[in-house]
Amino acid sequence: MNLNSPKVTVQKPAQYMFESLSDVRNFEKLMPENIAKFEVTGEDAFIFALKGMPEIKLKMKEKVAPTKVVLGAASDKLPFTLTADINAVSETASEVQLFFEGEFNAMMAMMVKGPISKFIETLANNMHKL
Questions:
Q1: Does 75 have pLDDT greater than 90?
Q2: CA angle, 5 then 126 then 114, to 5°
Q3: Please, what are the domains in the chain?
Q4: Which of 49, 86, 106, 124 has CB atoms 3.0–4.6 Å from 37's, for a disulfide?
Q5: How far is the C-alpha of 67 from the C-alpha of 17, rounded, in Å?
């Protein structure tokens, strides 16, 4: 299952966005209002939970300065990645788009598609908070 957020333009340089997204602590600022838990569990990992949903642990998988940050599920039960693509628009602005890729069976994909789409859209729309 592949989902994309809308592209958002942020009035920050690409390098700044890369550094901000490389620090897992900053993801708390991007989370939706219905967050039930957010806990940093190490330099490159955090756990979060939305109300009514199970906890998800994300771990930093790859960084390509200043254009890409990839987070992945720390558990193999539900393998997925969340990739932030960062493109410089000018010296003071950049475009960020999130890509979600997960391997789910058809039933699971049907259940999670809506909530995950909304979730990555919220993360993208909150990029200006970094």
A1: no
A2: 40
A3: 2-129 (3.30.530.20)
A4: 49
A5: 9
